[in-house]
Design a protein that fits this description.
The complex is a heterodimer of chains A (363) and B (354).
Chain A (H helix, E strand, L loop, with lengths): L23 E6 L13 H9 L11 H8 L8 E10 L3 H10 L6 E5 L1 H6 L3 H5 L2 H10 L7 E8 L4 H12 L5 H10 L4 H14 L6 E7 L16 E4 L2 H10 L5 H13 L4 H13 L5 H18 L4 H11 L18 H18 L6
Parallel strand pairs in A: 1-2, 1-4, 2-3, 4-5, 5-6
Helix pairs in contact in A: 2-11, 6-7, 6-9, 8-9, 10-11, 11-13, 12-14, 13-14
Chain B lengths: L2 E5 L8 H13 L3 E6 L1 H8 L9 E5 L10 H7 L4 H11 L3 E5 L3 H11 L10 E12 L4 E7 L9 H18 L6 E6 L9 H12 L5 E7 L10 E3 L2 H24 L4 H9 L1 H11 L7 E4 L4 E4 L6 H16 L2 H13 L15
Parallel strand pairs in B: 1-2, 1-4, 2-3, 4-11, 6-9, 7-8, 7-9
Antiparallel strand pairs in B: 5-6, 5-10, 10-11
Classes of the chains: A alpha/beta (363), B alpha/beta (354).
Organism (chain B): Nannocystis pusilla
Family (chain B): Belongs to the PlsX family.
EC number (chain B): 2.3.1.274
Chain lengths: 363, 354
């Protein structure tokens, strides 16, 4: 665990145009609570989710618009999207149909073998995600020379943890000994450990591939919970925030940003809510004032070219960030050595407090 | 949807509980919330609290006011304090409700400078609710309204009459009382021995045909009976009366705690614990949601200096209700009707006033 991290946002100029045009972009999406609005907190929710038809499933506001924008047909040959979900394999048909309804065609769609786990008595694997998702991420890693990965997960499970471990394996910062300790702590089954270690041997040190890990705060967890992962993990309250960060990094075209804004608006988001979201990113040092100015310019241009009623948005943006114009907030640090075991135990302690003492998870 | 502007520089734990209340409100209520204070401190604190950043915005207030300064000194030495910045935000948005646990004197002075006045209201009144024995109105509201409790210490008869009109309009909306019963607070010897301002107000209220029912004078020992829905007095007497009521409640609490000294008493208190809890809940000021400052064209909620999360949350809820029921417009109309004014457009802020 020695390699120093490089800030993936560094190659990007402030104008956000420095990404090489022909680089591959690999998007990795979780499904439930990240892409889809899913309730599975109770058995009743689980049954309802399982019985839902494709047309009854609802995507999180802006998620499909962002994904479609990132999978721009003009760039599609250099873009790849993989869905890795904890949903059972039996749901593949309905989930594929839902994605097709949204105009999203995944290159890879990995679902969890829950029935197999049940029949083999691997009960820990039914609930646990670390072994399954880490293996799936390593399995579906795209071995190309110039590839940027953007990962999308949520705060309902351990996505930030798993995605960061994956990123650090590729970056050469988690060696075999450290990985074995992590997998052992997470109580991953022996067979999965063997497979993951085999992938580790192949992929260790592939490079600083993972640019950003977006964690959709479906449960509105406190932001500090993700501070230990460093700047690579960006906790977002909505996909407008995700689009803004990708726009700043040059990974999303202005028209993509406009499409996400329009999708959020039609989903009931007011200009004030979007402006608050921008201010939040700015105060956290994730987004810079110049980027918001550029976004406003793009919106203003859209008014003349697309006839969109944007003055309310511009006014709201100005109102939210105008007084913070001189804010010089340093962004979060890129962590060179993440204390995975510490983070894991802290989260476990929190869950136990919740389970046995009734202390709310969000406090 | 209301726009709640919350001053996070005052309240329990240096305003930390105000911020926590804003965070909870952002998760539970569908309102735009602007938290005013030191942006850097707020952002650092918010990172540790679950909140919804889509509904919560931060407005930076550069200056911090020291608790021992008086209002004029604060406005001179710390002009960009959280009260001033918050009131400026409220002044720009008709749906805004300003909530603060700051010094009432500073809030009144700031509001006079920044907010527009309701026509016909020369001085503001701070209205507090207090529990009564008899419920009020069709919703059986157990609380009555007492104003003024400290905004205008020196009152004229005209002020008292205006307070009556404002209080009645407020009670009509919030407690849904068609014709609120309004009384003047007097001493024990009837109106003849009352000060000149009270005598003048009494005469004018008797002579007028207002939209409320004027029930005459009421003595301080009858305020909790519930004979009146609104009790009107000057800011000095109102503050004294309110503090007395709170002091009596606090003394009752202390006496109960003393009961722990003897075993038999402890057993007795334990047996009555459900009833005591109910009374405690009933008299707990944190449940009332702060005191609305009436007389301005925006809703202003003043909470006690040591307000905690619950008090702020209730103040936010009450402020949102005031916005939803358009109470300020109703007060404006009530005052205009009483004084025989025309249509009531809100007056612009008076820069000379302090």
């Amino acid at each position: 665990m020695t390699t120093e991290p490089t800030d993936p946002s560094e190659p990007t100029s402030p104008e956000g145009q420095a990404l090489q045009p022909r680089r591959f972009m690999h998007l990795r999406w979780d499904l439930d609570k990240t892409y889809l609005r899913t309730e599975f907190d109770t058995v009743k929710d689980l049954i309802r989710t399982f019985r839902q038809k494709a047309e009854d499933k609802v995507a999180v506001a802006g998620a499909s618009a962002l994904l479609r924008a990132l999978l721009d047909p003009r760039e599609r040959s250099h873009r790849r999207v993989t869905f890795i979900s904890g949903s059972p394999r039996q749901m593949r048909k309905v989930l594929t149909a839902k994605l097709a309804l949204d105009g999203v065609e995944p290159d890879m769609f990995i679902l969890k073998p829950n029935l197999e786990n049940l029949l083999r008595g691997r009960f820990r694997a039914i609930r646990g995600q670390v072994g399954y998702k880490l293996k799936a991420l390593l399995l579906s890693h795209m071995a190309a020379e110039h590839v940027d990965e953007y990962l999308f997960g949520d705060d309902a499970e351990q996505d930030a943890f798993i995605y960061s471990v994956y990123a650090d394996i590729l970056a050469g910062r988690i060696d075999a000994v450290a990985l074995a300790a992590i997998l052992s702590t997470c109580k991953v089954y022996r067979g999965d450990v063997d497979e993951i270690m085999a992938y580790h041997r192949q992929l260790f040190g592939s490079g600083e591939v993972v640019r950003r890990i977006f964690i959709h705060l479906e449960r509105r967890s406190p932001l500090d919970r993700f501070a230990g992962y460093g700047a690579r993990v960006v906790a977002i309250y909505n996909y407008f925030q995700g689009a803004a960060v990708l726009f700043e990094a040059g990974a999303l075209e202005p028209r993509g940003l406009l499409a996400v804004t329009a999708a959020m608006e039609s989903d009931g988001y007011t200009p004030e809510r979007l402006a608050n979201s921008l201010q939040d990113l700015m105060r956290r040092g994730v987004l810079h004032f110049g980027t918001i100015e550029r976004m406003s310019r793009e919106l203003a241009a859209a008014e003349s070219t697309m006839g969109r009623p944007v003055p309310r948005f511009l006014h709201a943006f100005e109102d939210a960030i105008g007084s913070l114009e001189n804010l010089q907030r340093p962004g979060p640090r890129w962590e060179s050595e993440i204390n995975y075991l510490g983070i894991y135990h802290e989260a476990r302690f929190r869950r136990q407090q919740h389970r046995f003492l009734g202390i709310r998870l969000l406090d | 949807m209301a726009h709640i502007v919350l001053d996070s520089c005052a309240g329990r734990d240096g305003g930390r509980e105000a911020l926590e209340a804003a965070a909870i409100a952002s998760l539970q209520l569908d309102h735009q919330i602007t938290v005013v204070g030191d942006e850097s401190d707020i952002t650092t604190a918010l990172a540790k609290i679950a909140h919804d950043a889509e509904r919560l915005r931060v407005a930076h207030a550069r200056d911090r006011c020291e608790p021992d300064m008086d209002a004029a000194e604060v406005l001179r030495q710390a002009p960009r304090n959280s009260v001033v910045v918050g009131l400026e935000i409220a002044a720009r948005d008709p749906s805004a409700v300003f909530v603060s646990a700051g010094a009432p004197g500073l809030i009144v002075a700031g509001a006079q400078q920044i907010l527009g006045r309701i026509p016909g209201v020369p001085h503001a009144a701070l209205a507090a609710v207090y529990p009564t024995l008899r419920p009020h109105g069709p919703v059986s509201d157990l609380f009555a309204l007492l104003l003024d409790v400290g905004a205008t210490v020196e009152c004229s008869g005209d002020d008292l009459v205006t307070f009556a009109a404002m209080g009645a309009a407020y009670a009509a909306k919030i407690s849904r009382i068609d014709r609120p019963r309004v009384a003047l607070l007097c001493n024990g010897h009837g109106i003849s021995n009352a000060p000149a301002r009270a005598r003048e107000a009494h005469r004018r209220l008797l002579a007028a045909r207002p939209a409320f029912e004027y029930v005459g004078c009421i003595r301080a020992d009858s305020v909790t009976s519930g004979d009146a829905d609104v009790i009107v007095t000057d800011g000095f007497s109102g503050d004294v009366l309110l503090r007395t009521l709170e002091g009596v409640a606090a003394t009752g609490e202390s006496l109960l705690r003393r009961a722990a000294e003897k075993f038999q008493w402890r057993v007795g208190v334990q047996m009555l614990s459900d009833g005591i809890s109910a009374i405690r809940e009933f008299t707990d000021w944190e449940n009332y949601g702060g005191a609305p400052l009436l007389g301005f064209d925006r809703a202003v909620m003043v909470t006690q200096a040591d307000s905690g999360r619950r008090a702020f949350l209730n103040a936010i809820r009450l402020g949102a209700k005031i916005d939803r029921l358009q109470v300020i417009a109703a007060i404006s109309a009530g005052v205009a009707e009483f004084h025989g004014l025309g249509a009531p457009p809100a007056s612009p802020p008076d820069p000379e006033a302090t």
